Each structure stands twice: as structure tokens, then as C-alpha cells.
Amino acid sequence: MTQQVPSTEPELGGVRNFRDVGGLPTVDGRRVRHGVLFRSGHLAHATEDDAAFLSTLGLHTIFDFRNAADQKLEGPDVALPGVRNVNLPLSDPADGAEFWKMVRDGDLDQLRGILADGKGATRMIDSYRMIVKERTAEHSQVLHALAEDSVPALMHCAAGKDRAGLSIAVTLLALGVERDAILDDYLKSNAKHRRYKVRRSSSSASAYSPEVMELLSPLFDARAEYLAAAFETVEETWGGVDAYLEQGLRITPQTRERLRERMLD
């Protein structure tokens, strides 16, 4: 750690967007227990100090939602002794390796073609909707694991914003956390010290020009409209959260209660 900061959100040298999700309020007046659910960006660049800190959390399981392209780009997570690492790839919110290659290597005209005129934000919204509808098996596996034995747990993807953000949101919905609190936690990923570092291959001044950064911003922002699209998809597809959990994710009321017992104060 590079400086003294609150233990619920230490400043880590090689891990972005780390935080404890504890303290969020539920609709029935309870709170998520501190020290049972953490979120972050990938752990591939964790320093020795980072790994030492993470080892103090008593983690049972790390859920890594990155796909093969992410892991090829960043590398595997640092190994933490005694911690189970579960890789559950969720479809990349920006359509995979070829798209990200254009983001890293593409010239201004190419970026305009794929991202301008709202296309970047639309791509993100579509991906959030798709993950909710098509990744029910993965989210079911996560919730069942948490209910059985897999806490404390850390969930991450590459930036810790989209795939991990949705998985955290689904978990919080199952726990009965207030919608506004789920959104507030999601939007914390916009803080400057948490944001994913954009990699551009070109060293030219235009690689990070204001126009390029504006084109890229929908991909690297946590926007309320993205999470709203996910929640709308739950309503449109299943008619509500309870039906989504029971029919979509196969979470029985008994499993949901075990989850709450494990993770709420």
C-alpha cells in the first residue's frame, strides 16, 4: 500500500477499483456485512504489497469474470495461497478482442466509425442487457456458491466496472439492497483513482487527444443508464426481481435466505 487510507478501501499499487461492498442498506433495514464481499479490477498486476493485503481478507473465493482475450492482454491473476479462483467469463461489454484492438490501435476515423454519434453508449447498453438475459447460469452459480460456502468473496473483471459491476448488482438485488444504494456503489467506479487506465498503442499526441478521449469515454464510464438498462431487462424479461431470481437464476427462497444470513448484519 502506498499510503494510509481506510481499511475498507485501501490504495493498492497494482489493483484498480478495489472496495468492500459492506454497509449498503437493505429495504428491510439491514446492511451488507463488512468483510464478506469485495470488488475490484483484475489482479494480474498486483504488487507484493497488494497480494499481502489481499491475503489478510480471509478470502474463500475470487470470481474472475474476464474472458480469454482479457487474460491474454493483462495476464492471469496473482496467486493467493488458499484462495479458490473461479473463472466465469461473461461476454465482454464491448464485444471482445477485435473491438478492443481497434480501441487500442485504431486511428481517429476508425474510432469515429465505431463509437461516434452515441454508438459507444448504445454498445454498452446492449451488452448490459445481453449479460442479464444470457448469463443467468453464471450468475446462478455465483449466488449458489455464496449461499453455500464461498464468502468472503472478491468479484472482478478487467476494470471492475461492467461485468463485475453487474454481478455485484445481481448479488445485491438478491440480498434486498435498496436500488439507490446499488446504483451509488456502481457509480463509485467513476472516481479518478479507480478508473481503468486506457491503453492506446500509438505514441502520437493524437492518441490521447480530447476527441479520442471523448469517443472512448462511454466504454470507460460507469453510467446510470447502463445499470438502468440491466434493471429494465429484468422487468421486461421476468416481470420483476423475485421472478428473475427464482425463474431466471433458480434461486429458491431458502437459498436466498441462506445468502442473507451469510452476508447481512
Please give the structural blueprint:
Layout: E1 19-20, E2 37-40, H1 48-55, E3 61-64, H2 68-74, E4 84-87, H3 96-105, H4 108-115, H5 119-134, H6 136-148, E5 153-156, H7 163-175, H8 179-187, H9 210-220, H10 224-238, H11 241-248, H12 253-263
Parallel strand pairs: 2-5, 3-4, 3-5
Antiparallel strand pairs: 1-2
Helix pairs in contact: 4-9, 5-10, 6-12, 7-8, 10-11
Describe the structure in your own words.
By secondary structure, this protein is an alpha/beta fold. It has a single domain (19-263), classed as Protein-Tyrosine Phosphatase, Chain A, CATH 3.90.190. It has helices at 48-55, 68-74, 96-105, 108-115, 119-134, 136-148, 163-175, 179-187, 210-220, 224-238, 241-248, 253-263, and strands spanning 19-20, 37-40, 61-64, 84-87, 153-156. The chain has a 5-stranded mixed sheet, covered by helices on one side.
In short:
The chain is α/β, with parallel strands linked by helices. Helix content is 49%, strand content 7%. The protein has a single domain, classed as Protein tyrosine phosphatase superfamily (Protein-Tyrosine Phosphatase, Chain A, Alpha-Beta Complex), CATH 3.90.190.
Supply the key terms.
5 strands; protein tyrosine phosphatase activity; 49% helix; five-stranded mixed sheet; 265 residues; single chain; Protein-Tyrosine Phosphatase, Chain A; alpha/beta
Give the % helix. Answer: 40-55%
Strand order of the largest sheet: 1-2-5-3-4
Radius of gyration: 18 Å
* Count of spatially separate domains: 1
Structural class: alpha/beta
Q: How does the major sheet shape up?
A: 5 strands, mixed
CATH fold-level assignment: Protein-Tyrosine Phosphatase, Chain A
State the fourth-level CATH superfamily: Protein tyrosine phosphatase superfamily
Secondary-structure element sequence? EEHEHEHHHHEHHHHHH
- Estimate what percentage of residues fall within beta strands: 5-15%
Mean pLDDT: 87
* First and last CA, distance: 29 Å
What is the general shape?
globular
CATH architecture: Alpha-Beta Complex
- Uncertain segments are 1-7
CATH classification class: Alpha Beta
Compute the number of helices. Answer: 12
